[in-house]
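quick one, 370 residues, struct below
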Amino acid sequence: MSRVSLRHVAKSFGPVQAVKDVTLDIPDGAFVTLLGPSGCGKTTTLNMLAGLEKVTRGDIFIDEQNVTKWAPHERGMAMVFQNYALYPHMNVFGNIAFALQLAKVPKAQIKERVHRVAKALELEALLERRISQLSGGQQQRVALARAMVKEPKVFLFDEPLSNLDAALRTRMRSEIKKLHQQLQATSIFVTHDQEEAMILSDYIAVMREGLVVQYGPAEDIYRRPQHLYVATFIGKPRMSTLSGHLRVTNDGAMTFESDTITLRWPFMPQHGPIIPIDTQAHLGIRAEDAQLLVDANATAPHSSDVFHGEVTLVEPLGSDTFIEVSRGGNAIVVRVAPDLHLRPQIPVSVRLPRHKLHFFDMANGNRIDL
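---
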């Protein structure tokens, strides 16, 4: 296991800044995901870690040792690529053993290590097959085996599941998670799939336009997003947001007003001093935190923390159903039990519990802590 650190790492391709300023500390044995849309700099960051791209500015450390100028083979890392990069003229054994043969590892040791890894990934029966005779999932396991057999300090994964169909992708995601739990090796994974990141990761670095917007434990990224971009990027369905004016008085009373709604919450004791607020803001709430009201009194304006509207979309997903409730251009998505049957245009209301709300400054997108 190894600790990996990036210090103010940047990469430019001519006038284009692919990575602007990335600082990360990756603990020993952690599974960390670089998450973001295409073009955000995540793969370039991974390539700099691997030594496949030169760093324009900044430093990379492995176990406190500066490896910024080291060649790829000197860093003790193994990379699993998006396209697997397997050798079609070799069989499975040859693909897994190739790096060990280049390193002039004794033949007996190569055989022992290849068979040990092949057994762990259920590839023993396929060692004599050509790559062209393998399914996509089997090729993925060969790519993993080739990385494992090198016994690296750090595993690097560059969107290794993106070429697989949905069912196989889910299965291979489980394989990678089991592999990490078994080896406890430091792993850095690149993906644009936030669900994949949440399932696999101990820590997530959410990237945007060459910068890390937020880095921390996966649960914190989901539960306490520090920026509106993170809040709406992480989560399926995405966090619902309303735009309006937020006011918090000295005694802790809160109001949120937009063109079509006015919401109020009474004083709620806080752990620290109350900071008065009067600003344009976005209100955010997760689908599982909003509470759908469908009884006879649900639409009566008796409660000031309730959003009144009508059902505009019903999305049944088997184990859950998601209901979109809209009013005047504003919409909130609520998760409900699958046996609750609603249809569009039915009037309903949604309670917004104060302790489940997120607020973000409209000017810069930063979280407003209350």
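The chain has a mean pLDDT of 90.
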